[in-house]
Design a protein that fits this description.
- It is a single chain.
- By secondary structure, the chain is of the alpha+beta class.
- It is built from three helices and eight strands, in the order E-H-E-E-E-E-H-E-E-E-H.
- The chain has a single domain, classed as 2,3-Dihydroxybiphenyl 1,2-Dioxygenase, domain 1 (Roll).
- The chain has an eight-stranded mixed sheet with strand order 2-3-4-1-5-8-7-6, sandwiched between helices.
Length: 156
């Protein structure tokens, strides 16, 4: 069950990560961790694939701001109308939370590919009203906090 205190971040999408960092930083008075350039496994309507994603978190939190560079033809594509992409929350059991949210009418929009019969480690769930939530495995919370505090070095 999602609890308000488990909300970890608000995610914004920018067509240019560096420019987005400058603009969002100036508007909201935040500084940033170093950007991470990731290769992520993705399961969506196009099937299973690997996608490059550049992302950064605010040093200030919680509630953190997450900013990522748009990736066309993926769940991370830019929208001409809204730059708030999703609200990210940690849950103890991603599989159970997916089932609960599906029961409320939300659908999986994209997720990490399940491994060895285990549920995804994260999933984007979208409501009929286009509200997107990212459910994240709570086991990753401390690693993300270390990154946000600047304790994780680039490339690690």
């Amino acid at each position: 069950m999602i609890r308000h205190e488990d909300i970890h971040h608000l995610a914004l999408v920018a067509t240019d990560l560096q420019r987005g960092m400058e603009e969002v930083g100036a508007v909201y008075g935040v500084t940033w961790t170093y950007p991470r350039h990731l290769r992520l496994g993705l399961r969506d309507s196009a099937g299973d694939r690997e996608v490059a994603l550049s992302v950064v978190y605010s040093n200030q939190g919680p509630l953190f701001l997450e900013l990522f560079e748009a990736v066309p033809d993926t769940v991370w594509a830019a929208s001409p109308h809204v730059n708030l992409h999703h609200i990210g929350v940690y849950v103890d059991d991603v599989g159970s939370e997916i089932e609960r949210l599906e029961g409320l009418g939300l659908a999986i929009e994209a997720c990490s590919p399940p491994v060895a019969g285990r549920p995804p480690g994260w999933a984007y769930m979208k409501s009929p009203a286009a509200i997107r939530i990212e459910v994240l495995d709570a086991a990753g919370r401390e690693a993300n906090l270390r990154w946000a505090r600047g304790e994780v070095l680039p490339g690690s």
